[in-house]
Write a structure and sequence with these properties.
alpha/beta; eight-stranded parallel β-barrel; two-stranded antiparallel sheet
Length: about 375
């Protein structure tokens, strides 16, 4: 049976606080372990009023301390503004306390942000006010418009060029790095991470060297992240929830580049999805109503706002351009009763041949988010 895992952004709801969001994350992780989810990953986001996961290593340690079996990790650490040594030391420290349970997921979007800030506009995903995990090695979904592949919607690609020119981009890139710092090539950084973990580097990371950390690469296209993961025989996480138009390119690029390693004999892929589940479809649609407004805040360069309530979302007056800005994300969100969402996720798994699915759910009320994951876990088990 294909496993389900969770990606959590530690969302801050309107009227709430970062402290509440972080306590909710820990509570959800405890429940996720009880429901049978395989992994609990924390994202890395910056400059977002509606997201509290700015320091994933810290939050991972807190979640690992509150749980006992579920794997805990990052989805993903942005290596563009940290050194390989600092990342390995952080995760090595956590692994020293919770050995064999820690995943180090690494993304390239921090590096993409720096590139965009210096090179100007480019029609590929910029992190903007929120880092969208992974990278884009070329225009997402460059093969054309919306299509349905064996029951899975592959929407028309989103044009990132406007967001790439947002004036906040350069400021954010500058704030996330030391003055004058430059980011090495992503492949070189990953090789350094591997060398530190395996003890083949000239320097020794303490803690870190020999850590039982599972290394993952996250990506949004068939670009460098997919190639690096495949060529080094590492597991790969592809984003359907962030870049649905290019998910098939991402998994194909990874599998094409894959070479067996001491880690994997064959490719291993996890694919992400946004989902909201409730007892009935009407309730699920109501709970998912604020999602479009939240995505709009990211894609306009405003940064992820505190997650609106359904009433706040209903009060927003939508323009045609607003709707076009977020339509791909709304159309590819999995919303409905448990059986319907489980069947749709099975389609995603079948079409991408994913070995696992990584589900992210955001609702205004924490109890609704917990219930969504509970209902999904049961419906997914019933499909087996």
């Amino acid at each position: 049976m294909t496993s389900l895992s969770i990606l959590d952004l530690a969302p801050i709801s309107s009227g709430g606080t970062a402290g509440q969001a972080l306590r909710n994350t820990i509570d959800l992780a405890v429940r996720a372990e009880q429901y049978g989810y395989r992994r609990y990953w924390l994202a890395e986001h910056h400059f977002a009023a509606g997201v509290a996961s700015s320091a994933p290593a810290v939050l991972i340690a807190l979640v690992a301390a509150a749980t006992s079996r579920i794997r805990v990790g990052s989805g993903a650490v942005q290596l563009g503004h940290q050194t390989p040594l600092s990342v390995v030391e952080q995760f090595g420290l956590i692994d020293a306390l919770y050995p064999g349970r820690i995943d180090l997921g690494i993304g390239r979007s921090g590096q993409r942000r720096a590139e965009l800030a210096t090179a100007g506009a480019h029609p590929t995903p910029a992190a903007g006010a929120v880092q969208e995990p992974g990278d884009a090695g070329g225009p997402a979904g460059a093969s054309g418009g919306a299509r349905v592949v064996d029951g899975l919607l592959i929407p028309e690609p989103f044009d990132w060029s406007v967001l790439a020119r947002h004036p906040q981009l350069a400021l954010q890139a500058a704030l996330l790095q030391q003055p004058g710092a430059t980011t090495p090539d992503f492949a070189e950084q990953i090789d350094q991470v591997l060398a530190f973990l395996r003890g083949t580097h000239r320097a020794r990371a303490v803690p870190g060297t020999g850590a039982e950390v599972e290394l993952w690469i996250l990506g949004s296209s068939g670009g460098q992240s997919a190639r690096v993961a495949g060529e080094r025989g590492l597991p790969f996480a592809a984003n359907y929830h962030v870049s649905p138009s290019s998910v098939l390119e991402a998994v194909e690029g990874y599998r094409k580049a894959f070479r067996p390693s001491e880690v994997l004999d064959e490719p291993y892929v996890i694919v992400s999805a946004d989902a909201v589940v409730a007892e009935d479809a009407t309730t699920a649609r109501e709970l998912a109503g604020p999602y479009g407004l939240w995505v709009r805040s990211i894609r306009t360069g405003q940064g992820a706002i505190p997650y609106p309530s359904p009433a706040e979302a209903d009060a927003h007056v939508w323009t045609d351009s607003d709707r076009a800005l977020v339509q791909d994300r709304i159309d590819t969100q999995f919303v409905g009763d448990p059986d319907t969402v489980a069947e749709r996720l099975r389609t995603l798994q079948r079409v991408t041949a994913a070995d696992e699915l990584l589900v992210t759910t955001i609702t205004h009320a924490h109890a609704d988010r917990v219930r969504s994951y509970e209902l999904l876990a049961k419906a997914w088990a019933d499909l087996a």
